[in-house]
Amino acid sequence: MSGHNKWTTIKHKKEKTDAQRGKVFTKIGREIAIAVREGGGSDPASNGKLRDVIAKAKANNMPGDTIARSIKKAAGEAGGASYKEVTYEGYAPGGVAVIAEIVTDNVNRSAAEIRHIFDKCGGALGTGGSVSYLFERAGVIEIANPNRLDEDELMTIALDAGAEDAEFGEDGAMVYTDPNEFTLVRDKLEAMGCAFLSAERRMIPSNTVALEEGELAAKVMKLIDMLEDNDDVQSVYHNAILPGEGDGA
C-alpha cells in the first residue's frame, strides 16, 4: 500500500480530538444514528457498520453508557433528525488536497459553511472527484503496545489476521487493511487481546506535499483546523506534511 498517513500526523490528530472530547462524542453519536438506520438495526452482532462505529467510539474513550444511550436513541428516532453523509473535496493553499466527510441534517447549510472555510483560508472547494483520486481508502488500526511486543511478532499477528501492512512507532503500530476486510481484521486483533488507540477507515494520500514553516503552512493548518472544528465535519483528510512532522520514515 502506498502513501501511508504519517505516524506523527495521526498522533497530532488524536491529541486534538482528546482536547475536544464533547464535540467528538456528539459527532460519533451522529455516526451511530446513521449506522443504526442504514446498517441493519441496533444489534451490533448483526450490524457491522454499527460495530465499526462502536469500536471508534471506544477508541475515543466514549463511555459505554453513553454509547448505549446513543444506540437506544437512534433506534427510537423514527421521526428524529435525518442525517446525511456528504463528502466535499478541494484544495488548500499550496496545492494541498483536502477531503472533508460530513454528517448533516441540513446539506445547504453545511455546503455554505464548508465553502466559506475554503474561501476564507485561500483554498478552493472543488467538485466530487477533484482530489479523491489522490487518495485510497483503507482500514487503519492503531495498536497500543504497552509491553513493547516484538515488531516481528506483532507483524505476524497482524498479517495472520488479514492485514495488508503495518508500520511501527515508539509505543505501538499502525496496521493497514483493505477497507472491505477492516471489520474482520479489527475483530480478530481484538480477540487476540490487542488494545486499540484508534480503529477506522481512512483516506490515505498516495503522494504528499511537504510544507516549510511559514505563512503558507499557517494557512493550510488554519483551513484544516476550521474544518475539524465545524460541528458537521466528521473527518478531514489531507496530503500535507506539516512543519515538525518530518517525512514519517
Q: Can you describe what's shown?
A:
With 249 residues, the protein is of the alpha+beta class. It folds into 3 domains: 9-75, Arc Repressor Mutant, subunit A; 86-133 and 210-239, Alpha-Beta Plaits; 135-205, Alpha-Beta Plaits (2-Layer Sandwich), CATH 3.30.70.980. It has helices at residues 7-19, 21-39, 48-59, 64-75, 107-120, 151-161, 182-191, 215-229, and strands at 84-92, 96-104, 124-125, 135-144, 165-168, 172-177, 195-205, 209-210, 233-238, 240-241. α2 (21-39) runs antiparallel to α3 and α2 (21-39) packs across α4.
The structure class reads alpha+beta
Query: Element order, helices and strands?
Result: HHHHEEHEEHEEHEEHEE
**Largest sheet, described in full?**
4 strands, antiparallel
Q: Rg from C-alpha positions?
A: 18 Å
Any descriptors?
Alpha-Beta Plaits, Arc Repressor Mutant, subunit A, 3 domains, 249 residues, four-stranded antiparallel beta sheet, alpha+beta, 10 strands
